Amino acid sequence: MVDSRAVKPLFIPQPVLPGQNTPAANRNAAGNVSAGTTSFVRVLEAQLNQPQPVKISAHAARRMAERNIVLAGDHLAGVATAMDRAAAKGARSSLLIMGDVALVASIVNRTVVTAVPREELKEHIFTNIDSAVFVD
Q1: Is 18 left (phi over 0), alpha (psi -120 to 50) or beta?
Q2: For residue 60, is pLDDT > 80?
Q3: Alpha-carbon span 95 to 134, nearest angstrom
Q4: d(CA 126, CA 136)
Q5: N or C: where does the chain have the smaller number of CB atoms within 10 Å of the terminal CB?
Q6: How many other C-beta atoms can be found within 10 angstroms of the C-beta atom of residue 100?
């Protein structure tokens, strides 16, 4: 004879279903999540609509240091605006012309790839760009 106190009940885990972790207070009578809660889609859209910062690649940082090119706050804001304008037109890689400096930038990645001062522009040919933007 088996002692029923010695046998442990078998635990079978149940699958997790979408919306199951939502507190009961946020559910309507049908058990659906109410519209008042923040959905994943809304959070994703909010993140995508935030302005993305301009990045400087390691190569561009090296070139800028060698050539004494400094991009300060106002300059970076102008570069960001130029990238936004280029992106709105469908550009992927642009030559950004800003005063005495030309910047090659990946619009998709919002990254400055290289920088060339005016004195060296005559010796350079820019390839693999699909647009040029004058930075204000």
Answers
A1: beta
A2: yes
A3: 8
A4: 21
A5: N
A6: 11
